[in-house]
Amino acid sequence: MSVGGVFIEIGLVPNSEAIKGLTTPNHLGEVEVNCANETGVPGLFAGGDVTNVPEKQIVVAAREGAKAALQAHRYLQRLK
Fold it and tell me: pTM of the prediction?
């Protein structure tokens, strides 16, 4: 079979065990977040492939993780 490219995918099931008891994952096991990476729990942010963001690619996961960290920082700054 002749192909123009190969894509390797690792893991299809999100590892959302860390948030068990804090928030309820969706039917796919993903943590639901809004565009600011906020979950339904105040002060709980999520990013990466564990979230409901549709694109499951490393560059997108890294971006979403950075966004979640920045949003968490802003949240903590507001608590002062």
Answer: 0.81
